[in-house]
Amino acid sequence: MEECQAQVLSSRPNEAGPRPSVPGPQPSPGEGRRVLAALSGGVDSAVAAALLVEAGYEVIAISMLLAGNAEGHDGGCCSIDDFQDARRVAEQLGIPYYVLNLKDAFRTRVMDVFTSEYLRGRTPNPCLLCNRDLKFDLLWQRARELDAHFVATGHYARVAYDQATNQYHLLRGIDQRKDQSYFLFTLSQLQLARTLFPVGRLTKGEVREKARTLGLKLAEKPESQDICFVPDGDYARFIEGRIATTKQQQVTSGAIVDEEGQVLGTHDGIHRFTVGQRRGLGIGGLAGPRYVTKIDAQSGRVSVGEKKQLMTRGLVASDVSWVNGPQGAEVLAEVKIRYRHPAIPARILLQGRGKAEVWFRQSYPAVTPGQAVVFYDGDQVLGGGWIEKAL
Amino acid sequence: MHPIYLDHNATTPLRPEVLAAMLPYLQTHFGNPSSVHAIGRRAKQGLESAREQVAALIQSRATEILFTSGGTESNNLALNGVLRSARARGAHVVTTAIEHSSILEPLRALAHEGVSVALLPVNNEGQVEADVLAAALRPDTVLVSIGLANHEIGTIQSIAALSRITQERKVILHVDAVQAAGKVPVDVNVLGVDLLSLSAHKIYGPKGIGALYVRKGTKLTSLLYGGPQEREKRAGTENVAAAVGFGVAATLAAQELETNAAHYVFLANKLCDGILRRVPGARVNSPVKDCLPNTVNIGFSEATGEGLMMGLDLAGIAVSTGSACAAGSLEPSHVLLALGRDPEAAKSALRFSLGKDTTEADIDRVLDILPKVVERVRAAHSGPSNEE
Questions:
Q1: Which of A333, A383, B63, B86 lies 20 to 30 Å from B54 when distance is taken between CA atoms?
Q2: What is the ipTM for the molecules in this complex?
Q3: Predicted model pTM
Q4: Does the pLDDT at position A159 exceed 60?
Q5: Residues of A with CB below 8 A from B379's CB?
C-alpha cells in the first residue's frame, strides 16, 4: 500500500518572465510562497515538510483525519499516535499544525466505494480512490482557504515542467523500489502545477538519513503496509461491518467452480475473493494449487483454476486519462497492472469514451478488475485507467 | 504584532497576583495539609483559606466546597456521586442537549450501566423552558444537571426558575457553572442548586484545580478512595498551591465582576456589530439576551469554521470552533445542532470569547482581518476545486 499522504520536489523553473495562461510554471520558494504540507505521522511526509522548510517555503502542516474516531483505533494512518508523531514533527520544524476532519468525505468517496467495489466482485485500491476523489482536491481547497500556493505530500514521485510545451510531467520517484507514481496517474495538469513531492528525488535510505540528521524521532518508524482504515488487514470483516452499519447492500454468496463449471464448494461472499488469490479458498483434495481466475458478481460464482489459467494477454480499461492530453489511437508503452508489479511492454488501443484495450507483449498472470493500469514511457507517467476485465 | 487571544472560554492566562500567591506553597509551605506538624498545618491553613475564598465567590459556606482537579472532575463527581449513591435500579437523570462533554460523556457511560438519561431540547436561543423540564421529570428522577452558561454560545439559563421545579419535586439539581463564574453573578442560594461545578483556569487561576459545591445534606458517593481528604469525598493529597491560586482568582473575580462585565459588553457589541456590518452572510448564534457578556458565536454561511479558525490563527488571532476530537480535528458543534441549525451551519461557526485584558485595538484588528479571511475561505469553497 501507499504510505498515507506519502509525496515530490521537482526541478521547477525559477524564471520569472511572462506567465503562460494554463497552468504556467510554478513560482520559486524565494517568492515567499506558502505550502500546505500533508503530514501522516510517517517519515516520508515529515522529511518532505522539512525539505520545504529548508528550501525557504512558508510551510503549514496538516494531517487528515480520514477514518475512525481516532479512539480505540490502533494502527493504520489515523491513530492518535500518528497524529502525535506528526504534531511533534511540526513543532520541531517550527511550523503551524492542524488536523483536518475529512471523515465524512472519506467515508462516502473512499470507504463506501471500496465496499461496493468488493461487493461487485472487484478489488478496489483505496489509495487510488483517495488520491483521485479526495486528497488532492480537498487539500487544494484548504490550501486556497489559507492562501497557500501549493500542496505537498510525501509521495515518491516527481513533477517536471516543460517550458517548451507549457506542460507538467509526472515522473517516477528516483527510488525505483519506492516509486509511488502509480497512485498519482489521475492528477491533472492543474493539480500537478500546484503539487510538490519533495522526497521524489531521494531514495528511502536518503529520506531516513535526512530524518536522522534532522533528529526526527520517527526516522526509524516502520512503514505502513495495510489499508489505512483496515489496520488488521481483514478487509472482508470491514466490509461486513459496513454492510451491518449501513444496511444498504448485501453480500453475494455462491459456488466455487472449476474451469469446467464443476462445483467444488461454496463460499460466504464474493467480497472475500480477489483474482489471483490462492489461500482461503476452502477447497482441498486437488492436485496442485488453485487460484481464483474469475469472480461473477451476478451469479456469485467464483472460478478457480491452475496458475496457467490466470495468464492473460491483456485487459480492458475504462476511464482512461492522460497526464499530457489525449493521444493517438494506438500508444506503445510499458504498463503496470498493480502497484507491486513490474512495468511490462504493451500496446494500448484507444476505443473512445475513455475505453481502451491493453495488449501485453507476453502473457501475465492475474489481471485484477478494480485496480488501475498505469501507462509509462520510461520514468514518465503517460496516463492510466481502471481495469474492467481481462482479455 | 502580538497575538490576539479571543478564546477565554477555553482557558485564561494566570493572573500575576495568583502566581505570586501560589509560589510560596510550591516551596516554602510545601507541607501535606493532612500532616499534624507545623509545616503540615501551614499548608492546611492555605488550603482552608482558599476554600473560604472560593465559597465567597458563590455565597456558599466553606464546608460545602470540595476541591477537585477541575471542572471535568467536578461534573463527573456530581453525576456519578449522586447516581451511584441514590441509584435504585434504572434511576432517571435529566440534562440538556447542549451540555459540555464532561456532562454528556459521563452520562453516556452511566446509561450503559442502566441509568436512564433524558436530554432536554432547548429553544433556538439555547434556553431550557421550565415546562419542558417539568414534563420531563418522572417519579424515579433523582438528578437534573443543567449548565448555567453554555460554553459555545453563551446562553444563560434561568436556573432560579428551574430550581423551583426541582425543589418542589425533591430532585437534586446540579449546575455546571464553569463558564458562568467570574462573568456573571453566581449565588447558590439565589439559584437554588444542590451541586455546582467550578474551574479555576477559566477565571485566571491555574489549570488542574476546580471545585464542587455540595449543599449540606446532599448525599454524594466518592469516586476516589484512599484517604480522608475533602470530607472523605475525594481522596488524595490536595493540590495546595493550585487551590491557593484558585482562592485568589475567585476573590479577584468577585471584586472585578462588574467592571469586567461592562468591559465585555462594550467590546462584544463592537465585535458583533462590526462583523455583521462588514461580513455579508454572518449570523449571530449567541442569544440576544441572557448571554455571557464575553461570548459571541457567529456563523458564516458558505465557509467552514475549521478554515476560518486556521486562517485567523495564521494571522495571529486565536478563536475557537466546535470541539476537538482526540486527534485534534474539529467536530460539528452538537450545541448548534441542538439549536436546530443544519449541519452546514453547525460547521460554519466561530466562537469569540473575550477576556479582561482584551482591548478595543484587538477588536479593531479582528474586524480588519476577519472579512478577508472569510472572503478567502468562501472563494475556496465556491466553484470547482480544480479551478485556479
A1: B86
A2: 0.86
A3: 0.87
A4: yes
A5: 144
